Amino acid sequence: MIDLFYWPTPNGHKITLFLEEAGVDYTLHGVNIGAGDQFKPDFLKIAPNNRMPAIIDTAPVDGGDPVSVFESGAILIYLALKHDRFYGETQRERTDILQWLMWQMGGLGPMAGQNGHFNIYAPEQVPYAIARYTNETNRLYGVLDRRLEGREFVAGNGYSIADMAIYPWIVPHEAHKQDLNDFPNVKRWFDAIAARPATLRAYEEGKTIQAEAKPMTDEQKAVLFGQTAANTTKA
């Protein structure tokens, strides 16, 4: 059984995509990041970076004590290795998958995240920041489009944790000022993943959790976007 500490953001969706595809039993625990749940001492014990998602595996393969994992990329690798799913079959495949997972973690996620912040959440319009992150997101879409030319999936020889990591960051493409029609290979790949039954189930789980929350207030936005070391409660 996996306990998943989660909020329906792109990083949260990565993990439900895997769990639904692999048919792993899991329990969702909502971490309302607008309400500051990520600073609660019990959560910090498993996620010291005060970010979700995080998991607790209550049945690790060694039969020992429960294992906690934070950081979405690390969680995907942990689950893929445990269940021997979606991580290729050879060292070459795994290297290919791993580099595209890291591309998402180090490039697409941070840049699209800043894009969303300055386009949607920032209390004032900052033209330089909007242009900087919108353009960089566009460049990264171009990288992905070239990679997907003649390929069904991003890496390896099939659907993998690289696709699961990247897809949720393409979902908000309109909010990030990107037109998928400009990237036909990305659009084909995106539409195929969106239609997968496991993807539909994963996003329905997100709607269930999101329904418990009210729209963020200005005070909650200040909590979410104004974090410093002083905000973090020590576990």
From TrEMBL:
Residues 90-215 form the GST C-terminal domain. This is Glutathione binding-like protein. The lineage of its organism: Bacteria, Pseudomonadati, Pseudomonadota, Alphaproteobacteria, Sphingomonadales. Residues 1-87 form the GST N-terminal domain. Signal peptide: none annotated. It comes from the Bacteria. Pfam families: GST_C (PF00043), GST_N (PF02798). InterPro entries: Glutathione-S-Trfase_C-like, Glutathione-S-Trfase_C_sf, Glutathione_S-Trfase, Glutathione_S-Trfase_N, GST_C, Thioredoxin-like_sf. Belongs to the GST superfamily.
